[in-house]
Amino acid sequence: MSDFKKAWVYLENGMFFEARSFGANKTAIGEIVFNTSLTGYQEILTDPSYAGQFICFSMPEIGIVGTNPQDIESSSIFAKGILVRHYNEKYSNFRSNKSLQEFLISHDTMGIFGLDTRLLTKTLRTQGAMMMIASTEYSTKEKLKELLSQSPRIEEIDYVKVVSTKETYRHKEGRFSFKTMDYTLPQTKKKILAIDFGIKKSILRELVNAGFSVEVIPHNFNAQAIITAYQAKAFDGIFLSNGPGDPKVLKTQIIELQKLISYNIPIFAICLGHQLLALAQGYETYKLKFGHHGGNHPIQNLHTKKIEITAQNHIYSVPEDIAKIATITHRNLFDGTIEGLLYKNAPICSFQHHPEAGPGPLESSALFNEFSKLLQKTK
């Protein structure tokens, strides 16, 4: 095994660990959450929704399949780092071209192994997500505690402006095909604007796969410009993406969304977009104790009564009283929280989970087609 440097981890509840570093050697501060996915660590790492967070994997063996160019979900790694039980240097996969260690270092991201991740996960379940610091530079509990106390909390930072695209662009590729080892190019019939709060490539591919031509625009959008374009029939609907952090931080975007809602433009939203819509309609979001992070979360479609296993990555949720203006279409079977809404006052549907399954099961991918049906009804 390589000669890995020592690393030290301190949590705001006072827990202190000595471990080993297999990523970038540095000091970083962020919120620690746990993820229960058994596969897909590269997609999870490159999900912009994890900006400002450390990911503790409950799956003990990480690194087995290396990394590859196809499974990158964004332009970089925005997470602060990952915490794992065992890191596997030797990887084996026919698509892999780089080890996880090389991938982390190339993106200046920390990787810590040799931790009791079972203990960490149980701690987060009982005490909730919390801030932490990891370092290969400082080894004392007192110094790490001091640095952590001087840093802003994740709720105080706007990570969306970091992860969102700076320029408008078109996305044309659909799902990856293992027959051709390339991305498909489906025919598209409807055009939508995708507002990028931290969008994943898998989501864009699923939108194209459902028959949408997609134009991705930055998070600091101008509602009036969008309304003018919609009135000129330049596009058919809007998609609000996933993204990191507390939705209440995005005060300007919430005001702009209120303008879009008032013009009855069809909107499809997931995750952060789902939460922003609730705030725009006057319903306060709240923070869950430890959130939902993983690829094995059961939800129920309240219309069909069918149960779907879904991919999730969020720590905020919408309130129950939103049922005054929206029909609750899906519920989480772990804790009963709201997973899906169909608004009564506008052609809007929104969902808390990640129907694109990057990584995760494809059971909720039909939601992209449901939005296509919603567009048909508005014509």
TrEMBL record:
An annotated GO BP: 'de novo' pyrimidine nucleobase biosynthetic process
Subunit structure: Composed of two chains; the small (or glutamine) chain promotes the hydrolysis of glutamine to ammonia, which is used by the large (or ammonia) chain to synthesize carbamoyl phosphate. Tetramer of heterodimers (alpha,beta)4.
Organism: Helicobacter apodemus
Chain sites annotated for binding L-glutamine: S49, G243, G245, L272, Q275, N313, Y316
Keywords of the record: Amino-acid biosynthesis, Arginine biosynthesis, ATP-binding, Glutamine amidotransferase, Ligase, Nucleotide-binding, Pyrimidine biosynthesis
GO molecular function, one term: glutaminase activity
SUPFAM superfamilies in UniProt: Carbamoyl phosphate synthetase, small subunit N-terminal domain (SSF52021), Class I glutamine amidotransferase-like (SSF52317)
Matching SMART domains: CPSase_sm_chain
Pathway in which this enzyme or protein is active: Pyrimidine metabolism; UMP biosynthesis via de novo pathway; (S)-dihydroorotate from bicarbonate: step 1/3; Amino-acid biosynthesis; L-arginine biosynthesis; carbamoyl phosphate from bicarbonate: step 1/1
Domain Carbamoyl-phosphate synthase small subunit N-terminal: 5-135
Active site location: C271 (nucleophile), H354, E356
Entry keyword Iron: no
Source superkingdom: Bacteria
Region (CPSase), start-end ranges: 1-190
Known catalytic reactions: hydrogencarbonate + L-glutamine + 2 ATP + H2O = carbamoyl phosphate + L-glutamate + 2 ADP + phosphate + 2 H(+); L-glutamine + H2O = L-glutamate + NH4(+)
Enzyme Commission (EC) number: 6.3.5.5
Pfam families named in the record: CPSase_sm_chain, GATase
Protein's name according to its UniProt entry: Carbamoyl phosphate synthase small chain
Nucleotide-binding keyword on record: yes
Similarity annotation: Belongs to the CarA family.
Biological function: Small subunit of the glutamine-dependent carbamoyl phosphate synthetase (CPSase). CPSase catalyzes the formation of carbamoyl phosphate from the ammonia moiety of glutamine, carbonate, and phosphate donated by ATP, constituting the first step of 2 biosynthetic pathways, one leading to arginine and/or urea and the other to pyrimidine nucleotides. The small subunit (glutamine amidotransferase) binds and cleaves glutamine to supply the large subunit with the substrate ammonia.
